[in-house]
Amino acid sequence: MDLKLLFISTLLGVICYSSAQPEGNECIKANAESCGDCIQVGAKCGWCTDISFLKQGEPTSARCDELESLKKRGCVAAKIENPRGSQRTLRNKPVTNRKKGGEKLKPEDITQIQPQKLSVSLRSGEPQKIDLKFKRAEDYPIDLYYLMDLSYSMKDDLENVKNLGTSLMLEMSKITSDFRIGFGSFVEKTVMPYISTTPAKLLNPCTGDQNCTSPFSYKNVLKLTSNGQQFNTLVGQQQISGNLDSPEGGFDAIMQVAVCGEHIGWRNVTRLLVFSTDAGFHFAGDGKLGGIVLPNDGKCHLENNMYTMSHYYDYPSIAHLVQKLSDNNIQTIFAVTEEFQPVYKELKNLIPKSAVGTLSANSSNVINLIIDAYNSLSSEVILENSKLPEGVTITYQSHCKNGVVSVGEDGRKCSNISIGDEVYFSINITAQGCPKQGKSESLKIRPLGFTEEVEIKLSFICDCECQKDGIPNSDLCNNGNGTFECGACRCNKGRIGRECECRKDEVSSEDLDKNCRKDNGTDLCSNNGECVCGKCECKKRENPEEYYSGEYCECDNFNCDRSNNKLCGGHGRCECRVCICDANYTGSACDCSLDTSTCLASNNQICNGRGNCECGACRCTDPKFQGPTCEICPTCPGVCTEHKACVQCRAFGTGEKKDTCDRECNYFTLTKVKDRDKLPQPVQAFPLMHCKERDANDCWFYYTYAVNNNTEVHVVETLECPAGPDIIPIVAGVVAGIVLIGLALLLIWKLLMIIHDRREFAKFEKEKMNAKWDTQENPIYKSPINKFQNPNYGRKTAVL
């Protein structure tokens, strides 16, 4: 298990390392065969048009490289083709500074976004930055279309809407002096499953004695008008209808309101659509319940202000509605009851520049709902762009109120904008490559919910200027087998080679390959290139400053000797693996200087006449002398005295040179040690002199002097000073005092021991006298002697 984990971690490390590597020179990797192909690789790439630029063995694609690399390789700036993108403002009308009650302006004369039209030329990989300004104009005209559900459940709502015209006109006059209002209604598709179970119910779909109008899909009751009283009159004539299922056909109505601009009367001003209902909605696919399978076509089908194709086309999808509402700059306000708030809030998230308000049970709050929703929608500006051409990308950065800067998707919008506020957007447009045929494209950017837009004409730089001067079928391209342009041949179809000298079907023939083998060897192009038309085209290196060259790609400029880890010591150039040294340098790695100024001694002699100057340094011929100019003799008499003053001033800050120490004594490296045992000892590698010198205070200091590449001095950090005559009596007195104190302490100790011994002896004698066994026999004493009597003792001996 541990081995598996180790393998996996190692593999992940390799993958991470590989992914972290730089991508390298994209200009070289592209292998561009023409100037036009080169400049499409990226903004860093340029093409050298100098005819003599390529070295032997280099392919035509070597003309394409990064700009700095081309200059280092010898291509002058005037010969580098490097077109740049540009932009030009075609219409730049200032934003309108208008106040309510001021001069009456037509909607088309009001400007809220600047500039309005630009022309942009794009070079591949080079972004073009466009700055836009948006200012919300005061007293901007508004068109509001009220679209109402007239199913039976909205009966009491209709009564309140009948007086909406004049009331709403009064409230909106506080926002704008140019306000128009219209009215439309909807119920459901006029097919049997949706509105009735029997044909008889088509005339009066309501139950009981209720008088209802026949069901319909959508009716445009009143075109947009500034006459509020007319709105009240026509809405007051409307009657409720009915249907079977709860979801209504409101999407059919919204689609017709969006696309039937002439019937509705939309102007190029702020367009508001108020959608009022107390039910859900049918959407694409639900039409199958009535046998309708054709998808909604998104076109206007109003005849006599009635939608006539509800039985023929399915309901539109949400995405279809979003597209049409956006195309026609319509901002939607969903005025729905509390029950359906969650459904329409989800729908709001899918429809840009839309709002949801809670409608009271009888629509009595509809005016406040509309005012609040309008203020919310108008305080936010969101930029959108038309479909981008292939290979073109766009990014946004917004500069909103209070210094708020946003990027990404948030860079498209600014919120909490009041009337008269100015906000700014920075837009970067970048092309990758060149669109097919290089045709110009048009891009439009506009704020959602507004009719104004910025038109941008895009053109693409697909070719170089030098291509215009190309010579078709030029003699320079193998007797007319290509076009000579931008310093190189662009071969006709079926031809290849630097001069188009070969047909493609000849490329790998054995006869041609012979010409690519040096000295009849086995390697084609020294394994550093490819044989094309009997000529070697050398490989490219990842580093643009490194390249192969030569008839057989046998040369390169990166395999020469190095010194101090620098190619040719940094004093020459590498040609065909040999260093070509700069002036005053020689050697295989150009590391030997011919300059003798570094060998001049203070007497203007080379190496003080004691050696030779080799590669800018002295080689002393007299083994006793060392140093940069053979001026030092570590073992010669007087060396210690010669350097005494400088060692003293640098180590202890004293001596005759202490005031000029920094200037006169910086010719050696000083190292301090603690004691004489730490001083270096003589070795065979280089001479070393041990020195002992005395200063003005009769203090000795010890040091070593050696020359090993550098002059090195090691010195003991403390001076060794003798004791002075004034201190001897003091020391003697101290010593005598210490001796006397010692004797006194010894006598006191002896006296105390005598007293102690006498006391112990007296105590012993006293205890001896008081002991009981001194005068009588010890009661527990038992004699070790036993007596035995012979039983025959005293008797006469028996006669046998």
Automatic annotation (TrEMBL):
Disulphide connectivity of cysteines: 27-464, 35-45, 38-75, 48-64, 206-212, 260-300, 400-414, 434-691, 462-466, 477-489, 486-525, 491-500, 502-516, 531-536, 533-568, 538-553, 555-560, 574-579, 576-607, 581-590, 592-599, 613-618, 615-661, 620-630, 633-636, 640-649, 646-721, 665-699
Membrane-spanning parts: 727-749
PANTHER family reported for this sequence: INTEGRIN BETA SUBUNIT (PTHR10082), INTEGRIN BETA-1 (PTHR10082:SF28)
Any Gene Ontology CC annotation: lamellipodium
Location in the cell: Cell membrane; Cell projection, Invadopodium membrane; Cell projection, Lamellipodium; Cell projection, Ruffle membrane
Principal localisation: membrane
Membrane topology summary: Single-pass type I membrane protein
GO MF annotation: an example: C-X3-C chemokine binding
Family affiliation: Belongs to the integrin beta chain family.
UniProt record, GO biological process: atrioventricular valve morphogenesis; cell adhesion mediated by integrin; cell migration; cell-cell adhesion; ERK1 and ERK2 cascade; integrin-mediated signaling pathway; muscle organ development; phosphatidylinositol 3-kinase/protein kinase B signal transduction
PSI domain boundaries: 26-76
Protein name as it appears in the record: Integrin beta
InterPro entries assigned: EGF_extracell, EGF_integrin_1, EGF_integrin_2, Integrin_bsu, Integrin_bsu_cyt_dom, Integrin_bsu_tail, Integrin_bsu_tail_dom_sf, Integrin_bsu_VWA
Integrin beta subunit tail domain residues: 640-726
Record's signal peptide: 1-20
UniProtKB keywords: Calcium, Cell adhesion, Cell junction, Cell membrane, Cell projection, Disulfide bond, EGF-like domain, Glycoprotein, Integrin, Magnesium, Membrane, Metal-binding, Myogenesis, Phosphoprotein, Receptor, Repeat, Signal, Transmembrane, Transmembrane helix
